[in-house]
Amino acid sequence: MAERLQKLISQAGIASRRAAEELIREGRVKVNGKVAQLGDKADLAHDVVTVNGRTLNPKPEFVYILLNKPRGVICTNKPLPQEKRRTARSLIPHEGHIFTVGRLDVDSEGLILLTNDGELANKLMHPRYEHSKTYRVLVENVPTRETLEAWRNGVILDNKRTAPAKVRLLSSDEEGTWLHIVLREGRKRQIRRVASLLGHPVKRLIRIKIDMLEVGHLHPGQWRDLTPKEVRLLKES
Q1: Which burial class, exposed, middle or buried, applies to 198 when counting CB atoms under 10 A from its CB (0-12, 13-18, 19+)?
Q2: In sequence order, what DSSP letters do the residues of 130-151 get, joined into one string?
Q3: Beta-sheet strands, E only, within 88-144
Q4: Dihedral class, residue 130 (left if φ above 0, else alpha if ψ from -120 to 50, else beta)
Q5: Is residue 119 within 8 Å of 13, Cβ to Cβ?
Q6: Whole-structure pTM value
Q7: Which of 40, 47, 105, 211 is catalytic?
Q8: Residue 211 is a catalytic residue
Q9: What's the CA gap between 48 and 55, in Å, rounded?
Q10: Residue 92: φ, ψ to 5°
Q11: Which helix (H) or strand (E) holds 214?
Q12: Which residues contact 237 (CB under 8 A, 6 or more apart)?
C-alpha cells in the first residue's frame, strides 16, 4: 500500500517525519530515480525510494539508546561545519544512522534518547501525547511558597500561559535551592525562562526521567540500550 514519503522515511529509521519533510524539500529524496515532492507517496514493495542515494529498507533494525548527556554537549542532528563542540551522537559508538529525540540545551544535562525509529521519535516529540519529563533543577536563592505556587499554576511566556507543572522544593543551602520539576509540555528553554521570570535563575538543570525511563546510575557521558520491556512500555505510553 502506498504511503506518504515522510512516513516511509520515518519508519525506515532515516529521520523523524518533520526532518523527512525537510529532506524532501531539499530534493534529497527520489522515487524510482525521480526527485520527489512533498505529498508524494510510494509503496516499498514496488517502488525504490532513496534518501541521499541510500535505498530505504522496509524492515530496519531499530536501535534505542539512553544517554546521560554531559553539560557542554549539543543535541543537534545537523551540526554546522564550523561547530567545534561535541554532539550527543558522537558519544555513541554506533555505526548506523541514529538521531536524538528532542533536545537538551548545551548547558543542561541528563537523559536524552537516541534512536533510528522515526515513528517513536515523532510520538515522543509531539505535544499531543503530553509525555512527562522530570528534572532536578538548582536555582538561585530560595523561592517563596507563593513563587512555587505561581510556577505550578503557569506563567505567561510568549503571550501564552504555560501548562500546570509539578514543582517541589527538595533542599536549600548557600549554593541555592534544588527543585523537583515535572512538565508535560516542552517549550524552548522553558524551565530556564520561567525560573528567570520568577526571579530565580537556573544554575544547573538535569533531566532525570522521560515517562517511565530514568537516567538511573549512569554517569555523564555513559549510555545503555533500552530493554525490550522499556521499548514496549514507551510505545504504549
Answers
A1: middle
A2: ---EEEEEEESS---HHHHHHH
A3: 99-101, 109-115, 133-139
A4: left
A5: no
A6: 0.76
A7: 105
A8: no
A9: 7
A10: -105, 115
A11: strand 213-214
A12: 129, 131, 211, 212
What's the grid cell of residue 192? 530556564
Query: Cell 546521560 identifies what position?
Result: 68
**138 grid coordinates:** 538548582
Residues 129, 99, 232, 62: what is their CA dihedral angle, to the nearest 10 degrees?
140
Number of helices (H), then strands (E), belonging to the chain: the values are 6, 17
List the chain pLDDT tens, one digit each, 237 residues. 788 999 888 877 788 788 889 999 999 999 999 999 999 999 888 899 999 998 887 666 889 999 999 999 999 877 777 888 899 999 999 888 888 998 899 999 999 999 988 888 888 877 676 789 999 999 999 999 999 999 999 999 999 999 999 999 999 999 999 999 999 988 889 999 999 999 999 999 999 999 999 999 999 999 999 999 999 988 887
Domains of the chain: 3-55 (3.10.290.10), 64-126+221-236 (3.30.70.580), 132-210 (3.30.70.1560)
DSSP per-residue codes, 27-69: T-EEETTEE--TT-EE-TTT--EEETTEEPPSS----EEEEEE
Tell me how far apart the alpha carbons of residues 87 and 100 are, in angstroms, rounded to a whole number.
10
Selection from 209, 23, 26, 235 nearest residue 122 by Cα: 235
Nearest CA to 138 out of 86, 91, 66, 200 is that of 200
Residues composing the chain: 237
Question: Which of 105, 129, 110 is CA-nearest to residue 119?
Answer: 129
